[in-house]
Design brief:
Elements: E1 21-25, E2 28-33, E3 40-45, H1 54-64, E4 69-73, H2 91-97, H3 100-116, E5 121-127, H4 129-137, E6 145-149, H5 156-160, E7 166-173, H6 179-190, E8 197-206, H7 218-238
Parallel strand pairs: 3-4, 3-5, 5-6, 6-7, 7-8
Antiparallel strand pairs: 1-2, 2-4
Helix pairs in contact: 3-4
């Protein structure tokens, strides 16, 4: 379940931000950036604020600059969380409509669409809600690598089912995915000799820090950029 920490520092959504374009892909409206001819693709699975978050698109553009085709689908069908303080907004009702099982099925359709256009290697990054979707996708070998960033609640069984190289980047101050749990999951992953894993806890930051930083907060930007570099390094290593 998502909590109030998921909705701190909400972004101002913009349908026109970013260097890429919005097209229908895999049955979803999708922000697409990078070389359309690249054989290496990444799927970004957003947090509850969806695919029009400027920092998320900025990150997609940045990663695409390393030679990847990056797709950021609208898994919420035009219904992201816009104003979590709206008295008419009910998170439980929203999650019933936009549950992670539906996100998982939609993501599989996006993977199939990438394969059908000739992509040879696919990675995925999942943020908060997206991390909950991605841990399910990582239980198959459809992906070449996964990077989960400050996920919502995920279980030990889901970690045990992971079958692809996985990195999990977590925050020191995270009520949803506490650092103690991340350390435990890191130990579980380290014991899985058949896959590579990387677990890192970022000090002094909270849930969502990778994409919900304030541009004028130098320390927050530095921590976010460090996580972006870690993510890119993981994808460069395994999505090839």
């Amino acid at each position: 379940m998502l909590s109030s920490q998921c909705f701190q520092n909400p972004p101002t959504l913009s349908s026109t931000c970013g260097a890429g374009t919005v097209q229908e892909f895999g049955g979803l409206q999708t922000y697409i950036t990078g070389s359309p001819d690249s054989k290496l693709a990444l799927i970004f699975i957003a947090d509850a604020f969806g695919y029009e978050a400027p920092n998320l698109r900025k990150l997609a553009d940045k990663i695409a600059g390393a030679g990847f085709l990056v797709v950021v689908p609208d898994f919420f069908y035009g219904d992201p969380v816009v104003d979590p303080k709206d008295p008419n907004f009910d998170i439980n009702s929203w999650l019933k409509v936009h549950n992670t099982d539906k996100g998982y099925e939609d993501a599989k359709a996006v993977i199939a669409a990438l394969k059908s256009k000739g992509v040879s290697a696919i990675g995925a990054a999942g943020f908060c809600w997206g991390g909950m979707v991605l841990v399910k996708l990582a239980s198959s070998t459809d992906l070449h690598a996964a990077v989960i960033l400050h996920p919502g609640p995920i279980t030990e069984d889901q970690i045990n089912d992971v079958k692809v190289p996985i990195a999990i980047l977590g925050a020191e101050n995270d009520h949803i995915f506490p650092s103690e749990q991340l350390k435990l999951f890191g130990e579980k992953l380290s014991a899985k000799s058949e896959i590579d894993s990387f677990v890192k806890i970022f000090p002094g930051v909270g849930h969502g820090w990778t994409v919900k930083y304030k541009a004028d907060d130098e320390s927050a930007v530095k921590s976010a950029e460090e996580s972006h570099s870690d993510m890119l390094n993981w994808f460069t290593k395994y999505v090839k």
